[in-house]
Design goal:
This protein is about 70% helix and about 5% strand. It contains 14 helices and two strands. A two-stranded antiparallel sheet has the order 1-2.
Length: about 325
């Protein structure tokens, strides 16, 4: 074929998208309006909000209430949630039934209602009796003097105090979180191919070893993203600890300061500022965790080439044979 028979040079032009620029201009105007409303409105009183953020009661509420409550509730929720997820996938019908009832119950109750009930635990159970089930009723029916109770615990004695309040809050939030984490962990476990389990069993691994060493490490790719979302949501849900009540909590402390000083809006801005800081740090940590457990999955071409170059690169100074 001669050069005269070849087609001419194609001068391709990209398809114009004028509405993209219109949308960009509209968004820029809206963002500028929002920034202007924050900067020019003195009622926000950002300098006072910054001062409130550094008050000792606020910092103490942040550390001992928000951060401690989040960490404790998530540790309890994740550990118990994984156990419940394994029970839900068990071949034992009793374990499956217990895990289903637990998940059904704690997913159905609002966390605020659950925390109010946790704060009233001393009224519901003034004394916690340890003994045989229905021991008192059996003793009365049989005419025995003893009610088959081995020991009793005065709940009201232990349900008062600052430390007890945060413990009750951690237990309440942790139980609620465990119901959600159970479904997240179950979805992650089911995402792992069954051939992995069969191969591990063929190598002589027990069920526990297979779950710890084979299934869960691969399931983390699916578990980490929603778990990060749950952790960020838990930071905000610690504001519900006032239902117990827990006085030493970030939002409660800023609200008290706002009521005493009549600086309501700066106090709310101070609470929002700390929530934004904590959640932003958690988002960064979630990003790196997702990247760590998602190695080899969903990589772009650039990331794949970069990872491959790291594997094949030789140490500096090593020459050829």
């Amino acid at each position: 074929m001669g050069t005269e028979d070849r087609p001419g040079v194609i001068h391709a032009r990209p398809v114009p998208h004028p509405w993209r620029w219109v949308a960009l201009a509209v968004i820029a105007v809206v963002v500028a309006m929002v920034i202007s409303s924050f900067v020019t409105n003195e009622r926000w009183n950002f300098p006072q909000a910054l001062r409130i953020m550094n008050f000792n009661p606020v910092l103490e509420g942040l550390i001992k209430g928000t951060l401690l409550g989040t960490a404790g509730a998530m540790v309890l929720g994740v550990v118990l949630g994984v156990v419940i997820a394994v029970m839900r996938l068990s071949a034992n019908p009793v374990l499956r039934g217990v895990s289903f009832v637990f998940t059904w119950f704690f997913r159905a109750i609002p966390r605020y209602v659950l925390l109010v009930m946790m704060g009233s635990i001393g009224y519901i159970y003034p004394e916690l009796a340890l003994g045989l089930p229905f021991g008192q009723q059996l003793a009365e029916a049989l005419g025995w003097g003893s009610d088959l109770t081995f020991a009793t615990i005065d709940v009201n004695r232990f349900s008062t105090g600052v430390s007890t309040g945060i413990i009750l809050g951690i237990v309440g939030l942790g139980l609620s979180e465990a119901a959600y984490m159970a479904e997240i962990a179950r979805a992650g476990i089911l995402s792992v191919d069954k051939g992995q389990t069969e191969a591990a069993e063929a190598l002589g691994m027990s069920s526990g070893q297979t779950m710890r060493r084979i299934v869960l490490p691969q399931a983390m790719r699916v578990i980490v993203p929603p778990t990060g979302n749950e952790t960020i949501a838990m930071v905000k849900d610690t504001s519900l600890l006032t239902a117990i009540p827990v006085q030493l909590e970030l939002f409660n402390q800023t609200r008290i300061i706002g009521t005493r000083t009549l600086q309501i809006m700066p106090s709310l801005v101070a609470a929002v500022g700390w929530y934004l800081i904590v959640c932003s740090v958690l988002m960064v940590g979630q990003y790196y965790l997702e990247r760590y457990f998602g190695r080899g999955f969903g990589q772009t071409r650039r990331q794949a080439r970069k990872a491959q170059s790291k594997r094949v690169a030789r140490p500096a100074g090593m020459g050829g044979a």
